[in-house]
Amino acid sequence: MAITRDEVAYLARLARLSVSDEELDVFARQLDVIVGAVARVAEVAADDIPPTTHAVPLTNVLRHDLVTPSLPRDKVLAAAPAAEDGRFRVPRILEDEA
Amino acid sequence: MSELTQLTAADTAAKIAAGEITAVEVAQAHLDRIAAVDDRTHAFLKVDAEGALSAARAVDDARAGGKPLGPLAGVPLALKDVVVTEGLETTCGSKILAGWIPPYDATITKRMLDAGIVILGKTNMDEFAMGSSTENSAYGPSHNPWDLDRVPGGSSGGSSAAVAAYEAPLAIGTDTGGSIRQPAAVTGLVGAKPTYGGVSRYGLIAFSSSLDQAGPIARTVLDAALLHEVIGGHDPADSTSIDAPVPPVVLAAMAGAAGDLSALTIAVVGELGGDGYQPGVTAAFADAVARLESSGAKVVEVSCPHFGYALPAYYLIAPSECSSNLARFDAVRYGLRVGDDGAHSLEEVMSLTRQAGFGAEVKRRIILGTYALSSGYYDAYYGQAQRVRTLITRDFAAAFETCDVLISPTTPTVAFPIGERIDNPMSMYAADLCTLPASLAGLPAISVPCGLSEGLPVGLQVMAPALADDRTYQVAAALEASYGRPLIDEVPSL
């Protein structure tokens, strides 16, 4: 099964990843080879085999209900690309929905 | 080169504790070595001379004050840049995190600092730990000290280059599909991937959460074991951390060095050898098997019929998990932001930032993972890969009914030339062929040097059941002892 240029563009959009025309050409060609290779997993008859999500059996872990210090807000915001009034600043998201 | 840089970690700590040398002298000797050779190896992304000297001074002061020192107090270490360090830039080899100063320490960072380990700086790596050569680093490749035109392996290739070039006696790597063992193998070092859950992942920048593990890289098995015991053990901050004692790897390394393996049955994995393996690798491995037999081990061969499907299963599971994990790089909370000029929407800013900030391999894997998880393909790809994962785990379980450990070459080839595979993703992925099964099954595995092929190091991998990490160290130490002295002694002096 071939991966087309359009398909790569669609997947990149889902992943919030802009791609140039040149990237589309290269990725479509490479991903086609890679998908062809990894599709070999289908050769294994495994219909009745349960999937493994984690190699080690784990159950959900709850922490003790204790108050502990959080990271200092100023320190966290200092590492952000943009901050304002003690918050992360992002581009306006509601302007078209008034 | 100062002789202080040639000591093992164990000897360095012993001499510091005995007052024969100071931690500051040791740190300075390594900083000088880095200044002398790192322009050729490019092992480090960031050197923290001030932090290293101040940590070393604290060790010397503690000793002067009569305080007890841990077994690695004052020993310098190179830390892979995937591990976060409070106040010290952490990029994960990516442009998207250029300049990021983490607001906290990873659990293992904290454990090492508390143990008096002196962190020299952060090492180069394939971007987000995706790769087998460091060529995917946004900051240029590291170089193998055995031959500067060849790769030092990856993704922990900065760490392996640093230790092989005597820029540090110890390093931390992380291993998702082989990223500790493969770089250790191709640079003549010891590298151990602990049992999944054996070492805290709190503060490791996540790539593939069901596989990622941190572990030691060192020039000797004992040094690796000492570091393993410092970083290992349960951490309430990591819900995948196993609440069990750290396997006694230091004792096992010491026991193994005595060279008696007569209580063990060692199985060679039939599927991990033959066609596609370089003759020099096959020969060095066969010689090592004979040495293990001479140490008294019973050597048998086993078949693990599904190991051949580890590579396709891994390259579905790891990209799927990465496509989800890397969604956090959204230009909001940390790192790069591109296109925030009032003309672009939030979604466009995210997409432009990710285009500018991620390199080609990361983008390929995000797209591949998005594909494998998408509606209509999920069961055929991701679901089927997870069922194959079960079958690989069962292969191991069946094998361990007849033996104590499994062995194989760590890599099918010696270090390859820089540039040889970068445009061919599938040939790059093949570097992980032998290391992927233990990753998928969450098992402990170590790579130990087993000779040279045309002047380049070959590694032997030892795999054991979950939480039997000590067995891998025991066998590795016995093999190491059979050569008389570490093979790394033969590395060119740069």
List the helices and strands and how they pair.
The complex is a heterodimer of chains A (98) and B (494).
Chain A: H1 5-14, H2 21-38, H3 73-78, E1 83-84, E2 87-88
Helix pairs in contact in A: 1-2
Chain B: H1 9-17, H2 23-41, E1 44-47, H3 49-64, E2 76-80, H4 107-114, E3 118-123, H5 157-164, E4 170-175, H6 181-186, E5 190-193, E6 213-218, H7 221-231, H8 249-257, E7 265-269, H9 279-294, E8 298-302, H10 310-325, H11 346-357, H12 360-372, H13 379-399, E9 405-409, H14 425-429, H15 436-441, E10 445-453, E11 456-463, H16 469-482
Parallel strand pairs in B: 2-3, 2-4, 7-8, 7-9
Antiparallel strand pairs in B: 1-3, 4-6, 5-6, 5-10, 9-11, 10-11
Helix pairs in contact in B: 2-3, 7-8, 8-16, 10-12, 10-13
Task: List descriptors.
heterodimer; A: 98 residues; mainly alpha; two-stranded antiparallel sheet; 2 strands; 35% helix; 4% strand; B: 494 residues; alpha/beta; 38% helix
The quaternary state of the protein chains shown equals heterodimer
Count of helical stretches of chain B: 16
Structural class of chain B: alpha/beta
Compute the separation of the termini of chain A in Å.
45 Å
Question: Distance between the terminal alpha carbons of chain B, to the nearest Å?
Answer: 10 Å
